[in-house]
């Protein structure tokens, strides 16, 4: 290297052992000049790949871009001017050293590259280049040392000889300073980028590099949140990459690929097995079956692979930041050793100390910036993961088969969306510790080997012994997690059923018995949670004790193995800082392994749900159909599930276009199943089904959305006032609108709670009529209305002269009065078509139809001669049967039993009350004078939006939790933490005193005493940790039991009016996500808070005790911290509240969708409901994303 430069490469006397340090010209011309070049060349391939994958469109050539390009070009000229000057020296017979050719050439090419990169970034829409900002910063940093050398050294040498190089250097320095300043400025948005129509766009996308790495772009929201509590309108819109529709689309694409791969492998195995059967007719059959079954078990679509392919690349950027941060974390222990060495060395130059302190500060700042970038990527990955999973589950729930619905209740799927998705989201935060923790442990042990030699192997032995201990805890925790999720599913399922049937529970005063059922499940759940909490306490004990035990064994072996091994301050405190670095990975590794074990359970549950069979969209043909017919079924055999007996057999049925066909039969004969088969909701085992054009469906149990009455009728169609009024009149809804407080703008509660049974059915019918479909499937729409209303609806809507005349209508009915007016009648008996024909033809045959008429004639007489039951009683009856809604409640038997129950209730009600009074009451209700209602009604908001608290968290909230834990227990926990930290401080003070003990004859005295006391103090700390962890675990379980019991008791004793105006999803959210937070999030958070608080206090006490002057600094620092904390926490707290409030509508909308899935599919409104779900998820993430940033 000396020959390459023509001078010395390194001179310690010039650089280190002097009060005026300087680098040699050779070192400056090589290492210092090449560092920025190597940085740019190394990062360039990865950066070009990133730009290729993230092209945002080109930016118009601006003045800023022109200046940056021109200055880069001038820099290239300046660098190569030095190169030509070196060639000029050859001509002048002054041959320069090779470095004067190589360095200008390399730096010049790099500047040319930077110039080209400026334009390439502009063409790819980069507004602020982080790569070039760092490059120019490194150039300026590396120019500082040559600048100082030239200022203080050139005057002593020949000033004329290198004047050209001095001028070019100053020109170079000025240009790179200008480039650095220009790079910090931001370009305009790309020319062809999509126009952002959002009223409140997120400023992150268009912010500069420096703003992004310091999160300065968030400051405007923090200021706004500090001035006043944030509201929903203050939130920024989501970035395009974080929106649900885009994320779910990518994840669905990868999941479909997984399904295709598995299907291809199954097809290959099936082909092989077919060949075996052909070649080995006898013996090969069993072997083939085994082959197929083994393949089916081994090869299932992997949801994990789909997640990795979708979110892996983005997550890897965060992993890269984590790698840099891990490497930087070991810089400070080495610098600490240098600082202690500087203090011990009285003759060391003063600049050593200043430089070491400055490097320690710079290293800490750089670590902080990089670590928060890592966390930002991890948290955003987790957020996108949750968004994708919720979207996938929602889309899947719209298309799963009835057999899958039987095994998946609404409560279980809500748990998948809330708890299981949350677990996956939480795991991403520390998932990098899987590789980071072993890396940190290995690096720490390597540095410890340098300090303490082979004695560190004793510490390694302790860590190896702790591995099986942590492994056992992880395995046990995983088993308990499976058990706990089972109990949680059962509890949420039962709560969902209770809330759906709450009116019946209150009328029968069944609250205590159902509360006992819930509390019994909760008791079992808490038993499992208690075991899990105790295991976590042991894990915490291992976390706190492991670094100390490693340090103790290492120090003990080091000082006892050889008397000449002296534990001085440098060895002790550098080793101790390395042991403290070991603390985090030793703690996190078992926790992450345990979390992976727990999350694998959630992942399998989600994968199992997404792997369920889907309804075949092609089972009902909609394009090719026999001319003249609207519905055709040929040799149709249908079942509710592949493993069940067929519900419909040998169906052959042709429905002429424009005809009115009645389907009749006894209870359970398959009438509703036939309608479901036409909708494609059943498994088609055999035959062909074709339905011409669009379909409108009126189910037996009217499905009503939580929206206005008008929106329920329009159901996404464009409003036509004339048609709308005609539909209202035909469906006998005019009088109902006059009675409703807000007319057609009245908000209908969840499941139509503020409408009677008849009103709900008429709204459902109005929805069908307004849709103007080609085929109408009417599943007993007249069962829930009075006989005179039924006649009005038949005459005005369904019948030969109704609004639907000319349309194809298939009417399932028990109302025999209307049968003479229909075109055709189909009679079903035990799932088969018994008879078909007109009314007169079937009467003459005197078979199943005649028997049906004889059976139902008495009911019809009762309906006509005796008073009908009130709509309110219909509502009560429907609530009794229908509100225990599970996913599989559309099965026909349930619907038929319900109708039978309604009839029985009608007879009982008629017998139990005065019929005359009932009739008069009904007539009065129907003919209420219009003057009793307001002529102009303002829309009545039935269900209020969930509101968030504002301001600081009230002390009463903390006090409530302390009371739930137990005030004495809370104080005892704080006392234990005091004792634990006192022991830790005592151990460090003792270690400090030990290292200061004088060395006599190359050895230290009282080594065994020193080791013994140090061990006693450390073990005492471990004991306090164990006791405090167990106490906190017991307190947390007690609080969980108390708070859940209080919530359950309160909800069961809440008036019915509360349930009429509160979506069930909002209440379920309290019992699922919020109880999960109380059970599993708050206790570890309290543990972390108490640990951090007492460590901070003890550290300040120790510093003040050793350096009293530090107390003067603490006061302004504490004031600054207090104001900074108030400034940021105000925004962070409110964002958390808004996020919690916006989460409930996701689950409410999902529960509503699952209940009406068949209606949504029939009207082909699946995409619209998916968009609505995505919008609700996006609303939730709008508050969640800034909440993530506020914690940075």
Automatic annotation (TrEMBL):
Transmembrane feature ranges: 31-50, 70-91, 97-118, 130-147, 167-185, 351-371, 430-449, 455-475, 540-561, 968-991, 1011-1033, 1075-1095, 1101-1124
Domain ABC transporter: 631-855
Reactions the enzyme catalyzes: leukotriene C4(in) + ATP + H2O = leukotriene C4(out) + ADP + phosphate + H(+)
Entry GO CC: plasma membrane
Enzyme Commission number, as recorded: 7.6.2.3
GO molecular function list: ABC-type glutathione S-conjugate transporter activity; ATP binding; ATP hydrolysis activity
Coiled coil start-end: none
Keyword tRNA processing appears in the UniProt entry: no
Principal location listed in the UniProt entry: membrane
Membrane topology: Multi-pass membrane protein
SMART domains, per the entry: AAA
Domain ABC transmembrane type-1: 316-598, 971-1192
Subcellular location as annotated: Cell membrane
InterPro entries, sorted: AAA+_ATPase, ABC1_TM_dom, ABC1_TM_sf, ABC_transporter-like_ATP-bd, ABC_transporter-like_CS, ABC_transporter_C-like, MRP, P-loop_NTPase
Residue ranges, annotated region (Disordered): 913-941
Keywords: ATP-binding, Cell membrane, Membrane, Nucleotide-binding, Repeat, Translocase, Transmembrane, Transmembrane helix, Transport
Family: Belongs to the ABC transporter superfamily. ABCC family. Conjugate transporter (TC 3.A.1.208) subfamily.
Stated name of the protein: ABC-type glutathione-S-conjugate transporter
Lineage of producing organism: Eukaryota, Metazoa, Chordata, Craniata, Vertebrata
């Amino acid at each position: 290297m000396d020959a390459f430069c023509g001078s010395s490469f390194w001179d310690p006397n010039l650089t280190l052992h002097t009060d005026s340090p300087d680098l040699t010209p050779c070192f400056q011309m090589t290492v210092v000049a090449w560092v920025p070049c190597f940085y740019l060349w190394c990062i360039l391939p990865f950066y070009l790949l990133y730009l290729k994958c993230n092209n945002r469109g080109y930016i118009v050539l601006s003045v800023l871009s022109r200046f940056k390009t021109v200055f880069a070009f001038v820099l290239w000229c300046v660098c190569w001017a030095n190169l030509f000057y070196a060639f000029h020296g050859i001509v002048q017979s002054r041959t320069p050293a090779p470095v004067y050719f190589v360095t200008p050439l390399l730096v010049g090419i790099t500047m040319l590259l930077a110039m080209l990169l400026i334009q390439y970034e502009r063409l790819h829409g980069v507004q602020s280049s982080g790569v070039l900002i760092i490059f120019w910063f490194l150039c300026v940093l590396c120019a500082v040392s040559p600048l100082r050398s030239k200022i203080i050294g050139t005057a002593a040498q020949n000033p004329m000889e290198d004047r050209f190089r001095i001028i070019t250097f100053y020109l170079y320095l000025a240009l790179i300073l200008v480039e650095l300043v220009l790079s910090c400025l931001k370009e305009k948005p790309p020319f062809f980028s999509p126009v952002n129509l959002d009223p409140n766009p997120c400023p992150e996308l268009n912010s500069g590099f420096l703003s992004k790495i310091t999160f300065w772009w968030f400051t405007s929201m923090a200021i706004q949140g500090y001035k006043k509590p944030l509201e929903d309108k203050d939130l920024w819109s989501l970035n395009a990459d974080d929106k649900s529709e885009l994320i779910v689309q990518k994840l669905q694409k990868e999941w479909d690929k997984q399904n295709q791969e598995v299907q291809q492998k199954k097809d290959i195995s099936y082909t092989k097995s077919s060949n075996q059967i052909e070649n080995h007719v006898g013996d090969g059959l069993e072997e083939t079956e085994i082959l197929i079954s083994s393949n089916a078990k081994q090869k299932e679509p992997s949801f994990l692979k789909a997640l990795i392919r979708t979110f892996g690349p983005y997550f890897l950027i965060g992993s890269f930041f984590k790698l840099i941060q891990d490497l930087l974390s070991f810089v400070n222990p080495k610098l600490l050793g240098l600082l202690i060495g500087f203090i011990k060395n009285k003759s060391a130059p003063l600049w050593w100390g200043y430089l070491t302190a400055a490097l320690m500060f710079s290293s800490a700042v750089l670590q902080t910036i990089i670590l928060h970038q890592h966390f930002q990527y991890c948290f955003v990955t987790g957020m996108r993961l949750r968004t994708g999973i919720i979207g996938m589950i929602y889309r899947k729930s719209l298309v799963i088969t009835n057999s899958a619905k039987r095994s998946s209740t609404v409560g279980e799927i809500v748990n998948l969306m809330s708890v299981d998705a949350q677990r996956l989201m939480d795991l991403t935060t520390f998932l990098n510790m899987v590789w980071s923790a072993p890396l940190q442990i290995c690096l720490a042990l390597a540095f410890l080997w340098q300090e303490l030699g082979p004695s560190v192997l004793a510490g390694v032995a302790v860590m190896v012994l702790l591995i099986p201990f942590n492994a056992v805890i992880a395995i046990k925790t995983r088993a308990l997690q499976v058990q706990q999720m089972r109990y949680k599913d059962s509890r949420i399922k039962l709560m969902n059923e209770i809330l759906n049937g709450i009116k019946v529970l209150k009328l029968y005063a069944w609250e205590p018995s159902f509360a006992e059922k819930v509390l019994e499940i909760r008791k079992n759940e808490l038993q499992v949670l208690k075991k899990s909490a105790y295991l976590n306490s042991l894990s915490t004990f291992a976390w706190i004790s492991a670094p100390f035990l490693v340090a103790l064994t290492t120090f003990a072996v080091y000082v006892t193995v050889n008397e000449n091994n002296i534990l001085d301050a440098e060895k002790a405190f550098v080793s101790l800082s390395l042991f403290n670095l070991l603390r985090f990975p030793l703690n996190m590794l078992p926790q992450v392994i345990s979390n992976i074990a727990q999350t694998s359970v959630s992942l399998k549950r989600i994968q199992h749900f997404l792997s369920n069979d889907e309804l075949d969209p092609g089972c009902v043909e909609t394009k090719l159909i026999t001319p003249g017919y609207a519905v055709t079924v040929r040799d149709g055999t249908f079942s509710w599930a592949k493993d069940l007996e067929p519900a419909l057999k040998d169906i052959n049925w042709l429905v002429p276009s424009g005809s009115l066909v009645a389907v009749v039969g006894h209870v359970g004969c398959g009438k509703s199943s036939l309608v479901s088969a036409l909708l494609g909701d059943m498994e088609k085992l055999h035959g062909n089904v074709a339905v011409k054009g669009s379909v409108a469906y009126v189910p037996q149990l009217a499905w009503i959305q939580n929206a206005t009455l008008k929106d329920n009728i329009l159901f996404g169609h464009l409003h036509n006032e004339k048609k709308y009024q005609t539909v209202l009149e035909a469906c006998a809804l005019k009088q109902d609108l006059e009675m409703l407080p807000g007319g057609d703008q009245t908000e209908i509660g969840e499941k139509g709670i503020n409408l009677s049974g008849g009103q709900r059915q008429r709204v459902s019918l109005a929805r069908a009529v307004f849709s103007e479909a080609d085929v109408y499937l009417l599943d007993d729409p007249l069962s829930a209305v009075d006989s005179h209303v039924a006649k009005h609806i038949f005459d005005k809507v369904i019948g030969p002269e109704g609004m639907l005349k000319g349309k194809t209508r298939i009417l399932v009915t028990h109302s025999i009065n209307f049968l003479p007016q229909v075109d055709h009648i189909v009679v079903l008996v035990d799932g088969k078509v018994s008879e078909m024909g007109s009314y007169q033809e079937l009467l003459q045959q005197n078979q199943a139809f005649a028997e049906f008429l004889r059976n139902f004639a008495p009911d019809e007489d009762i309906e006509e001669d005796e008073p009908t039951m009130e709509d309110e009683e219909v509502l009560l009856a429907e609530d009794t049967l229908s509100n225990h809604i599970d996913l599989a409640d559309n099965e026909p038997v349930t619907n038929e039993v319900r109708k039978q129950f309604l009839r029985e209730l009608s007879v009982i009600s008629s017998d139990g009350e005065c019929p005359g009074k009932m009739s008069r009451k009904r007539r009065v209700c129907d003919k209420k004078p219009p003057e009793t209602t307001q002529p102009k009604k303002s829309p009545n908001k039935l269900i209020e939006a969930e509101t968030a608290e504002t301001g600081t968290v009230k002390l009463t909230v903390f006090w409530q939790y302390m009371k739930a834990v137990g005030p004495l227990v809370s104080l005892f926990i704080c006392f234990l933490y005091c004792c634990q930290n006192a022991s830790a401080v005592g151990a460090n003070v003792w270690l400090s005193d030990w290292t200061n003990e004088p060395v006599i004859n190359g050895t230290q005295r009282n080594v065994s005493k020193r080791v013994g006391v140090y061990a006693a103090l450390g073990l005492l700390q471990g004991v306090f940790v164990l006791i405090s962890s167990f106490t906190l675990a017991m307190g947390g379980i007690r609080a969980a039991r108390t708070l859940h019991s209080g919530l359950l008791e309160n909800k069961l004793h809440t008036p019915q009016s509360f349930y009429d105006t509160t979506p069930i999803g909002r209440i379920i959210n309290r019992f699922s996500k919020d109880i999960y937070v109380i059970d599993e999030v708050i206790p570890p958070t309290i543990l972390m808070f108490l640990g951090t608080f007492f460590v901070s206090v003890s550290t300040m006490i120790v510093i003040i005790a050793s350096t009293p002057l530090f107390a003067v600094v603490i006061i302004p620092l504490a004031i600054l911290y207090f104001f900074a904390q108030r400034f940021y926490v105000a925004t962070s707290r409110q964002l958390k509240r808004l996020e919690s409030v916006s989460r409930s509508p996701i689950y409410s909308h999902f529960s509503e969708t699952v209940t009406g899935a068949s209606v949504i599919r029939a009207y082909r409104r699946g995409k619209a409901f998916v968009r609505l779900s995505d919008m609700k998820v996006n609303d939730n993430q709008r508050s969640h994303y800034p909440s993530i940033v506020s914690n940075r």
